[in-house]
Every structure is written in C-alpha cells, then in structure tokens.
Amino acid sequence: MSASVVLVGAPGSGKSTVGALLAERLDEPFVDVDAVIAERAGKSIADLFTTDGEAVFRALERAVTVELLEQPGVLSLGGGAVTSEEIRTALRGHRVVWLQVSAASATQRIGLNEARPLLLGNVRGQLIRLLAERAALYAAVATLTVDTDGQQPEAVVATIVDALSAAPAPVEPT
C-alpha cells in the first residue's frame, strides 16, 4: 500500500495544517516528512541545515520521502522536495495535491519564522524566489492544484476531499 495523498507546496502553503486535518477526515495517519527527518537526525531542520548543510538534508529528504511514499496515509513533503528528480519520479502514480499559495499569503502565515533556514533574511523576497523556481516543478507532479490564498484550512480540506471522491486514484507505475 502507498500514501493515499501527498501534499506539496511552498513554505506557508498549509501542508502541515491541511495534512493533519485531511488525514483526520480520511481516517488515515498523517506523516510530515520534515518531522520524520528531524526525529531521525536528532535535531531540528534548521540545526541540520546549519551543522550538516543542505546537501546532507536533501539526501535524508530523498531517502525518507521514497520510504514513506510506500506507507499508507497522508504525506506532507518539505517545500523543496520537488527539486529532487528522484522524488519527482517516485511521486508518479500518487495523488499529489499542490497547495498553491502567493508569496504575500505565505509571508503572512510564516511571519519571521527562524525555523525555516531557506527563508532567513528577507522572507517575502526569498518566498518570491522559491515560488518562481519551484512553481513548474509543483505543477509537473500535481494531480490536483488547490489555491489556498484566503482559504481556511477546513475549506481546503473539503475541496481536496470533493476532488478525490470525484476522480479515480491514479494507477501506480509497474
């Protein structure tokens, strides 16, 4: 069995919040890849970036994501996971929901959160850059795109559930 729904999107798109609510609604487990990485590394994502570097984090992210995609539940990927070709390939055959967000909304949600190492400094400017770099990658892996701007998490979950019930599950590649 594999993950029933995989959430992707920029920091501040609502992946963790929506993921937990969606899992509850679907009566499935919720797994946040970043939380699993932090647990296994024995340090926060910010500390992992600072002490070990982004390359070490990305290697852990690839391994953990590919492993967790084979387990049931709702899976929330880190914002940069889609930059990995290995992860994009592994996402084929999964229901992947892109939680789309504007830089303005994401900045408002995140604030000046120091726990996000790629956003240190000019948070809004960094988000604009990340969104520009990753939008095509999110779109390429998504089987459903949901705009989260101005939406409460419960409304986003309802949109996802409605779309999932209206569409058959994708066929996993053999």
Automatic annotation (TrEMBL):
GO terms for molecular function: ATP binding; magnesium ion binding; shikimate kinase activity. Its cofactor is Mg(2+). Binds 1 Mg(2+) ion per subunit. It comes from the Bacteria. Substrate binds at residues 34, 58, 79, 134. Pathway: Metabolic intermediate biosynthesis; chorismate biosynthesis; chorismate from D-erythrose 4-phosphate and phosphoenolpyruvate: step 5/7. Mg(2+) binds at residue 16. Belongs to the shikimate kinase family. HAMAP family: Shikimate_kinase (MF_00109). This is Shikimate kinase. It comes from Microlunatus kandeliicorticis. The lineage of its organism: Bacteria, Bacillati, Actinomycetota, Actinomycetes, Propionibacteriales.
